[in-house]
Amino acid sequence: MEPPQLVLVGLVLLLGVLGVLVPGVPGTWLVWAGVLWWALHVRSDGAWVLLASATGLLLVVQVVKWLLPPRRIQGLGVTPAMAACAGGGAVLGFVLVPVVGAVPGFMGGMYLYERRRLGTHRAAWAAVRTGMRAAGTSVLVELLACLLITAAWLTTTLI
User: Is the dihedral of CA 50, 55, 61, 65 positive or negative?
Assistant: First the structure.
């Protein structure tokens, strides 16, 4: 695959990861479509294994999301800025402590946003707990899967 196409696939994957944080955007399906596009052009054993693994993981994520309580973010003060802070924290945590760092990074980003907005530790921590109960767990599961797939694609592409 030529470098311009690889960049486009990377942008689709990035758009999918960011799309997980925006309600209504099919982020997981954008990530899957990017991996599918790449696998159809590369046609190597590694590409097919990654596509099959990504498909399986995303199907498991859909089942897990279905089993979790539905998102109830109306009236909770969840803003795009809060989603950006939580997502940025998850990505930073994922990079600093691969895979498992996404969870504390997500919650840390959410906490820092709420701490700045509300001013006190107690109020910020209560807002984080409420946000995680309402929608955070569902978003975090989806985001972690997309980050894993993107990292696997990046690793496979660079090797």
Answer: positive
**pLDDT (tens digit, 9 = 90+) per residue, 73-103?**
555 567 778 888 988 998 899 889 887 888 8
CA atoms within 13 A on the CB side of 70: 2
* Confidence bin at 8 (pLDDT 50/70/90): very high
CB-based contacts of 121: which residues, under 8 Å, 6+ apart?
115
Helix/strand/coil (H, E, C) string of the chain? CCHHHHHHHHHHHHHHHHHCCCCCCCHHHHHHHHHHHHHHHHCCHHHHHHHHHHHHHHHHHHHHHHHCCCCCCCCCCCCHHHHHHHHHHHHHHHHHCCCCCHHHHHHHHHHHHHHHHHCCHHHHHHHHHHHHHHHHHHHHHHHHHHHHHHHHHHHHHHC
d(CA 5, CA 144): 25
Q: Cα(71)–Cα(131) distance, rounded to whole angstroms?
A: 10
Per-residue pLDDT, 65: 81
